[in-house]
Write a structure and sequence with these properties.
CATH architecture of the largest domain: Orthogonal Bundle
Structural class: mainly alpha
Number of helices: 15
Strand content: under 5%
Radius of gyration: 27 Å
Shape: flat
CATH superfamily of the largest domain: MetI-like
CATH topology of the largest domain: MetI-like fold
Length: 321
């Protein structure tokens, strides 16, 4: 090494100088950090940045599948899309599915995380089964629900019929079948249920990690002071879990806002269950109007950015306090 060589009074070689220079670069955190992040930044820019720029260019043009020449039309696509009943219905469904599902998921995830944090036999198996809906590919999982809720051969209808809840004289299905995916109100409930079923495991795991990270001495002090379950929940667990809840809600909202697989597989683009993501696909790809499809897809981009900024600020402020 050049340092040892210099101390020994020996001449410093070119190889020693190169080795010292390389070690000096590795010790500089300000240079090493960006170098390590560069591959990830390049990957994200290629995977997300280029399609985003292309979608923005399409949304301000009149490009279609048959003619992909980009001619500037300004905000005409946004004005035309906003006035359509399909867009207004999809916008309402997007907010409805997202807000209602995340409220239910947040309540159920807290309860489920507290149950899974306790010690009982088979806890690891229960945790694995809880996470299973999230690890299953979304298209495969929704296909399973499509089969379970089939209008003619639904196993769910068969179980309800055997239990006496379906058939003449019953309120749920007097004709013998419920037709889960054909009637608009029931189809919307099914889509909402699948969104809850899909995002609940991830929120549960996130909250479970935060719950187990609460210091044991805080719990012991609360037990010594005689604080019951509800007092510990309101004054200890919920305040300490607020940053974790913000992260869980943020992930759930982004996934629900941008998901089109549930609607596409279950209802095949039924106008009563359309969300903005599915409407953008059917408008831009199925109908061939790439410009209007891109305008629909970009409509909630500012809203998603605003939600992400607010939730992250909330989490940071809670951690500071």
């Amino acid at each position: 090494m050049s340092a040892g060589t210099a101390r020994a009074g020996l001449p410093v070689t070119v190889e020693d100088q190169g080795e010292d220079r390389g070690r000096y670069l590795l010790d500089r955190e300000g240079l090493l950090g960006p170098l390590l992040l560069l591959p990830a930044i390049a990957y994200i820019a290629a995977l997300v940045g280029f399609p985003l720029v292309l979608a923005i260019a399409y949304s301000f043009s009149d490009v279609i599948v048959a003619d992909q020449s980009i001619d500037w039309v300004g905000l005409d696509n946004f004005r035309a899309v906003v006035k359509t009943p399909n867009f207004q219905n999809a916008l309402r469904n997007t907010f409805l599915f997202t807000i209602v599902s995340q409220v239910i998921v947040l309540v159920m995830a807290n309860a489920l995380a507290m149950v899974l944090a306790a010690d009982f036999r088979g806890k690891r198996l229960v945790r694995f089964l809880t996470l299973l809906p999230w690890t299953t590919p979304i298209a495969l999982a929704v296909l399973g629900w499509l089969w379970l809720l089939d209008n003619v051969y639904s196993p769910v209808d068969w179980l309800l019929r055997e239990a006496g809840l379906l058939g003449p004289g019953t309120w749920l299905g007097p004709m013998g079948n419920v037709y889960w995916l054909s009637e608009p109100s029931k189809a919307q409930l099914v889509v909402l249920f699948v969104h809850i079923w899909r995002t609940l495991p991830l929120a549960t795991v996130i909250l479970l990690a935060g719950l187990t990270a609460i210091p044991q001495d805080v719990r012991d002090a609360a037990n010594v002071d005689g604080a019951g379950f509800w007092r510990q929940l309101v004054y200890i667990r919920i305040p300490l879990l607020l940053p974790i809840m913000a992260v869980a809600v943020l992930f759930g909202m982004v996934f629900t806002f941008t998901d089109m697989t549930v609607v596409y597989v279950l209802t095949r683009g039924n106008s009563d269950t359309h969300v903005l993501a599915s409407l953008a696909y059917f408008t831009g790809v199925e109908s061939g109007s790439l410009a209007q499809g891109a305008a629909i897809a970009l409509f909630l981009f500012p809203a998603l950015v605003g939600i992400a900024v607010l939730m992250l600020r909330l989490a940071r402020r809670t951690e500071t306090n």
